[in-house]
């Protein structure tokens, strides 16, 4: 993120704990999956015109020792806020939670989000609701995520957990000490290709992108790599010409990278290359042959009546049976070839 | 829907939906994951703005054809319980200003193996019950893992809808309607659309602030741990440059072989039908001839004639097997073949590049 706070996170605050169990003070780490953030941003776009911020529920998983919370999905919860009171649609939250858990039985309630960086009395009130007993995350601390979506400013994400403060029960209900916790945005292999497609639209005027075919994606990747190689060689040249300051570390790094190129005999490469390319092309050829055969067989199957009419049906059927048998035989041959081919590959 | 005349020509998918579908699909992998998509159609473009997964429920095997669904999730979109779930969810989403119109469903696939009865029946269910303007989004988990995202939108063609409604899949009917396997599914171009906030977010996520020129690193370790070395580049995706191709081709070959097997079974079934049909017809002709000679002799003897159309009661022609399965199978094979093609085209390029790199002298040749 553009604005990452650096803070030392030694121990998390004491949360509300059950009597008799030792309070845990192990650090807590929050992992956010991109789709959760995306849906928060989407919700923020869909807020009512008069609303400053919107809130919603965070769902995800908690590691067994409770030191890592992974936020996987979210849903929006309606609420209204005036200067002196806040109303959260609890009924909606409960129903939605039940619906969500039906489809995602592995996810649990982990906290809530708001789309403004501000923390106020209402935040504390809502936080206490989410971390409370019964419907809340108790005995685990509820995670509060703020994602600022103010126009003209960077999107700022912060994660908090809270500790109870207040001398009397009434005061404790609407106050909480929010303590920032570190978070990271993590995405898996599967999401990478999706993010790529989304990111490719980032510079487009209409904020839209088509999905690339394999070869287009390859072209782009290669162009990018070529660009990087150009940059590096420009840098190296300018160092040689003594225009740019030299750096031992940089030189060492580049040398290490160059050393990654494998040393192989040209003859080996030639042989492996030819073998492999032939395999690949044969598979492609066979796949297309199969496709053509299928199409032919389908055409023959539906075209038979035009050949002989009603009375010639039986005869032409017999003939076609022969044809088909021949085709089946060919198919068998193909298959043998293919399995041999696979064994080689 | 007021503007029903404008046919759907394109599908615009929000980034949020893309991510949600990917998440659901990869979590459920290798089983099929299905869910509903909501949005609205503007002119000829269907905008998909949100999605939610379907819960997996057991469903009674009371489908159109008597094929028991081996995977309950694959059949989920047309299960009764899920229709209620979807209605409920849509109602809830409407309260928080989401475009709450059901516009179809999504499914995950593995190596393009999505052309099957389940998908057809689901989409039929949607196109019949809801309205004409629904699509099926297919996310191919395995292909997306190979590099570029594979997300496609399909609809059933009107021709196929008509045929499927009346279950007319005999060769005679197919000939009349001229329905070919290429006509089953109509693919719509998919476009990914980002909201302003997401655009801004992606920009932030990508670049560590490059405002000031950075100092040269002091040591190798410093270089490797600097934020620039760690910053992840989202696009383009360098996974595309990976050379491991055998697993992909192998899997594809396996699937193709399976399809050939299915094709064989179908062909055999059809041949069997034709043989029995020929046999029955031979019997009928024999019977008719016999009746004719009998009638001729009766006419000679001035006896009342026996009716000549009694054979319709005596013999029963065998039922022609439905051609639907073999059509779907053909479509599936086409899908695989195209997949292999596009993969091979990218791979050969990569391989020549590698060769050119390792043997610099031989490129000119």
Automatic annotation (TrEMBL), chain A:
CDD domains: MPN_eIF3f (cd08064)
Keyword set, alphabetical order: Cytoplasm, Initiation factor, Protein biosynthesis
Annotated SMART domains: JAB_MPN
Single GO biological process annotation from the record: formation of cytoplasmic translation initiation complex
Compositional bias annotation for Basic and acidic residues: 335-345
Annotated Pfam families: JAB (PF01398), MitMem_reg (PF13012)
Localization: Cytoplasm
GO cellular component, one term: eukaryotic translation initiation factor 3 complex, eIF3m
Record field: compositional bias (Gly residues): 318-332
Gene3D superfamilies in alphabetical order: Cytidine Deaminase, domain 2 (3.40.140.10)
Spans annotated as Disordered: 308-345
Gene Ontology terms for molecular function: metallopeptidase activity; translation initiation factor activity; translation initiation factor binding
Ranges for domain MPN: 30-166
Keyword Cytoplasm attributed: yes
Entry keyword annotation includes Repeat: no
Family, as annotated: Belongs to the eIF-3 subunit F family.
Biological role stated in the UniProt entry: Component of the eukaryotic translation initiation factor 3 (eIF-3) complex, which is involved in protein synthesis of a specialized repertoire of mRNAs and, together with other initiation factors, stimulates binding of mRNA and methionyl-tRNAi to the 40S ribosome. The eIF-3 complex specifically targets and initiates translation of a subset of mRNAs involved in cell proliferation.
Assembly description: Component of the eukaryotic translation initiation factor 3 (eIF-3) complex.
Matches recorded under PANTHER family: EUKARYOTIC TRANSLATION INITIATION FACTOR 3 SUBUNIT F, EUKARYOTIC TRANSLATION INITIATION FACTOR 3 SUBUNIT F-RELATED
Protein name: Eukaryotic translation initiation factor 3 subunit F
TrEMBL record, chain B:
Pfam family name, one: JAB
Entry coiled-coil feature ranges: none
Gene Ontology cellular component list: eukaryotic 43S preinitiation complex; eukaryotic 48S preinitiation complex; eukaryotic translation initiation factor 3 complex
Main location: cytoplasm
GO biological process annotation, one example: formation of cytoplasmic translation initiation complex
A GO molecular-function descriptor: translation initiation factor activity
Keyword set includes Protein biosynthesis: yes
PROSITE patterns, alphabetized: MPN
Location in the cell: Cytoplasm
MPN domain boundaries: 11-160
Family per record: Belongs to the eIF-3 subunit H family.
Self-association and partners: Component of the eukaryotic translation initiation factor 3 (eIF-3) complex.
Entry protein name: Eukaryotic translation initiation factor 3 subunit H
UniProt source species: Aspergillus ibericus CBS 121593
């Amino acid at each position: 993120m553009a604005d990452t706070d650096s803070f030392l996170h030694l121990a998390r605050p004491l949360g509300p704990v059950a009597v008799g169990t030792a309070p845990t003070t192990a650090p807590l780490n929050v992992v956010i999956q991109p789709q959760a953030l995306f849906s928060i941003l989407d919700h923020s776009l869909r807020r009512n015109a008069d609303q400053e911020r919107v809130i919603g529920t965070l769902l995800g998983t908690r590691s067994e020792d409770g030191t890592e919370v992974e936020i996987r999905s979210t849903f929006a919860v309606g609420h209204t806020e005036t200067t002196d009171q806040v109303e959260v649609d609890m009924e909606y939250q409960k129903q939605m939670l039940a619906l969500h858990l039906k489809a995602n039985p592995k996810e649990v309630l982990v906290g809530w989000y708001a789309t403004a960086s501000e923390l106020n009395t209402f935040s504390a009130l809502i936080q206490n609701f989410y971390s409370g007993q019964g419907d809340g995350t108790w005995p685990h601390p509820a995670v509060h995520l703020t994602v600022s979506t103010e126009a003209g400013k960077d999107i700022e994400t912060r994660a908090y957990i809270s500790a109870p403060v207040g001398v009397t029960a009434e005061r404790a209900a609407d106050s909480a000490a929010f303590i920032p916790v570190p978070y990271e945005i993590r995405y898996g292999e599967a999401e990478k290709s999706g993010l790529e497609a989304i990111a490719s639209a980032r510079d487009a005027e209409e904020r839209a992108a088509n999905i690339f075919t394999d070869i287009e994606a390859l072209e782009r990747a290669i162009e990018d790599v070529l660009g990087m190689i150009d940059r590096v060689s420009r840098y190296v040249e300018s160092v040689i010409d003594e225009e740019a300051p030299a750096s031992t570390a940089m030189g060492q790094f580049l040398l290490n990278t160059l050393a990654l190129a494998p040393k192989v005999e040209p003859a080996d490469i030639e042989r492996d290359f030819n073998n492999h390319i032939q395999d690949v092309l044969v598979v492609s050829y066979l796949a297309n042959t199969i496709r053509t055969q299928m199409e032919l067989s389908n055409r023959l199957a539906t075209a038979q009546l035009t050949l002989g009419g009603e009375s010639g049906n039986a005869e032409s059927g017999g003939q076609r049976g022969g044809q088909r048998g021949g085709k089946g035989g060919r198919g068998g041959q193909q298959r043998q070839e293919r399995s041999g081919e696979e064994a080689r590959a | 829907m007021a503007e029903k005349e404008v046919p759907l020509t394109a599908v615009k998918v929000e980034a949020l939906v893309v991510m949600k579908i990917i998440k659901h699909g990869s979590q459920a992998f290798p089983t099929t994951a299905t869910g509903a998509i909501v949005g609205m159609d503007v002119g000829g473009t269907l905008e998909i703005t949100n999605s939610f997964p379907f819960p997996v429920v057991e469903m009674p095997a009371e489908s159109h054809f008597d094929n028991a669904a081996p995977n309950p999730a694959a059949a989920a979109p047309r299960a009764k319980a899920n229709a209620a779930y979807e209605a409920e969810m849509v109602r809830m989403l409407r309260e928080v200003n989401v475009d709450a119109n059901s516009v179809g469903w999504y499914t995950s696939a593995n190596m393009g193996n999505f052309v099957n009865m389940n998908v057809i029946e689901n989409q039929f269910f949607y196109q019949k019950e809801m309205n004409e303007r629904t699509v099926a989004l297919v996310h191919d988990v395995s292909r997306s893992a190979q590099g570029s995202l594979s997300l496609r939108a399909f609809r059933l063609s009107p021709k196929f809808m008509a045929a499927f409604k009346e279950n007319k899949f005999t060769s005679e009917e197919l000939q009349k309607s001229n329905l070919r396997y290429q006509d089953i599914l109509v693919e719509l171009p998919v476009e990914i659309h980002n909201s302003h906030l997401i655009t801004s977010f992606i920009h932030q996520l990508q670049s560590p602030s490059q405002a000031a020129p950075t100092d040269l690193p002091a040591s190798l370790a410093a270089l490797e741990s600097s934020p620039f070395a760690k910053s992840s580049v989202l696009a383009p995706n360098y996974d595309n440059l990976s050379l491991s191709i055998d697993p992909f081709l192998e899997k594809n070959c396996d699937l193709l072989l399976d399809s050939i097997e299915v094709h064989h079974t179908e062909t055999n079934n059809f041949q069997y039908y034709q043989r029995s049909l020929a046999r029955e017809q031979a019997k009928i002709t024999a019977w008719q001839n016999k009746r004719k000679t009998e009638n001729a002799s009766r006419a000679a003897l001035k006896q009342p004639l026996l009716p000549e159309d009694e054979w319709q009661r005596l013999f029963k022609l065998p039922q022609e097997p439905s051609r639907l399965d073999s059509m779907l199978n053909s479509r599936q094979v086409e899908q695989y073949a195209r997949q292999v093609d596009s993969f091979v085209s990218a791979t050969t390029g990569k391989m020549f590049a590698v060769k050119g790199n390792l043997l610099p002298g031989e490129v000119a040749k």
